[in-house]
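With this grant's support, we have settled on a layout for protein records. An illustrative entry appears below exactly as we store it:
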Amino acid sequence: MKVFIYSSFNEKFYNEFKNEKLTTIQFVFRDKMRNDQARLAFEECDVLMGNPPPEWFENIPPKLKFWQIDSAGFNQYKGLKLPFPVANMGDLFAQACAETMLAGILAYYRGMDKLIKLQQKKKWEGLQLRRTLHCLGDKKVLILGSGTIGLAIRKMLKGFGAEVKLSARTSPIADIHDFSDVLKVLSDTDLVINTLPGTAEQYVSKEFFESMKKGSVYANVGRGNTTNEGELIKNLQSKKLGGAIIDVTNQEPLPKDNPLWDMENVILTQHTGGGSIDEDQGKIGRFLRNLDRFMNKKPIEDLVDLTMGY
């Protein structure tokens, strides 16, 4: 069996694939070959791990029987119809994403971003700053999306005493389902946290921002394309929004001339949301467990439907 590892890992983690149970498997790694060799390895593999260019699937490899995507999101592959199981990384990144959002939100409400800059300038302005600070536990929060990231964030926020609602189109665990009902609660919501997948194109629209409470905060750890970035910038500049914590943007890296870079009321976390020191090991561990399940004809974990985008 040929397994093509398109994912890129730290060199020390490649030993994870050397296991006495895997002696019948030939692992080939994109990192160790030229581009033309990588494409050939893709076309000849039985199992694939990683996120190759979508155009590679214009001709589906004839022997491919299982594909492990190495991310939680996979909007770039939406609509692909494949005759074999496909899995993503499930909740691997949920805790890290939730902690990044919590860190950014707390930094904004407690003035940490300003305090760090004051420390760099050796300026003591704590007395003036303390009168501008907020407590997270006093806030009403709306989380867009009820997947693993949204649920992890809700759990953390409730620990602070915040009042939290979830919105999702069909999930029975969500409090709100219709977009019209979302718009109705925005005028009384202090903080909106977006965890939506890329299939929710421009969900956070001009109408959405116009419905938000003046001085409220917007946070996004979902996908950049779910937000009308022009309207976000406009509402930050006009002070309609009090601030924003942004992990994902429409274009990454964020262009240097984008106004978000220079806004005092914006915290950019540069798509680090799901990152951690154990990220590579976590990806490999999940893949090897699914590979074992595939080989032993057991149900594969974290299956996804590419035609639906989730």
Q: What stands out?
A: The radius of gyration is 22 Å. The longest strand covers residues 241-246. Residues 279-295 form the longest helix (17 residues).
